[in-house]
Amino acid sequence: MSVLTKAYFHDEAAAFAKLEEIVWPHGPSCPHCGGMERVYDLSKTRLGLKKCGHCRKQFTVRVGTVFESSHVPLHKWFQAVFLLASSKKGISAHQLHRTLEVTYKTAWFMAHRIREAMRSGELAPMGGNGKFVEVDETFIGRDKTKKPKGQKKGRGYAHKFKVLTLVEREGKARSMVVDDLKTSTIVPILRENIDRETRVMTDEAGQYAHLSRDFEHGFVSHGKGEYGRGEVHTNTIEGYFSIFKRGMKGTYQHCAEKHLHRYLAEFDFRYNNRVALGIEDQERATVALRGIVGRRLMYRDS
Ligand SMILES: [Zn+2]
Fold first, then answer.
1. Does residue 56 lie within any of the structural domains?
2. Which of 28, 208, 219, 250 is most buried by a 10 A CB count?
3. How much distance in Å is there from the Cα of 28 to the middle of ligand 1?
4. If you measure from the C-alpha of residue 63 to the centroid of ligand 1, how many angstroms do you get, rounded to a whole number?
């Protein structure tokens, strides 16, 4: 036995049952009218088919979700979600294509829909009294709209995509693509995303120079070979970036800017649902599945 021998990875009826269990923990509800009292099982007619006794319409658990418009069987979706949710550095569309035996195009589509579902949309401020949030930026890929020339001397980053990440110690990460690293760009983002009582940890970069106006601010002078003093360090975020960079280099070699935010969502998702927070692989996959279904449109207007 292994995780991969679970029936819902192979058997379509089991996959339907599993998805229903995840989506409808309190029993099926009609996606057309929300009715739950009289739902009839028509699965002998077609897999997963139900009929609402209230509005008389038929539905399955796939209705209104990305699974409805997809021709890929549910059990393959389960495999894809599990692979993406459990692989620390991600999984390429090529690998998914070979493993799932679907076309490359389909694999690519599936992976991006799953990443979309992994986006948390979390807006609540991070940190708080007695908490630490580490902030840092990293550079990835090549922004073809920007030429390497005109960069600041000694720093060949002007033509790369810029990613800003905030990580709460023993907590979650929030990453975003930013246009530049100017103080006027970065500081408002930090004000919006971090509770004012938080102790914010950065390196000595110029954009953080006046952060003590907004937060209790500690910084490490990497330029002077300093790696931290007691509670003042950025080790957490450096660990985060090392996984992110290895994943982006090894697994996602070609990443267009318009998709970068989705890859960030994927790495944030795995980090925010990590084993150290008590979340194992299967549970993480379930969270992602809920995210996919959570994007469904309930209670149609018409
Ligand atoms: Zn109904």
1. no
2. 208
3. 11
4. 12
How many A from CA of 295 to the centre of ligand 1? 19
CATH number (domain holding residue 187): 3.30.420.10
Cα 219 to middle of ligand 1, angstroms: 57
Residue 151: is its pLDDT beyond 70? no
Cα 67 to middle of ligand 1, angstroms: 20
- pLDDT tens for 218-229 read 999 988 888 889
Query: Domain limits at 196?
Result: 132-255
Distance 69 CA to ligand 1 centre (A): 20
Task: Count structural domains, the chain.
Answer: 1
Would you state the pLDDT for residue 154? 44
H or E stretch covering 216: strand 216-220
DSSP string for residues in 59-120: E-TTTTSHHHH--S-HHHHHHHHHHHHH-TT---HHHHHHHHT--HHHHHHHHHHHHHHH--
Q: What is the mean pLDDT of residues 196-214?
A: 96
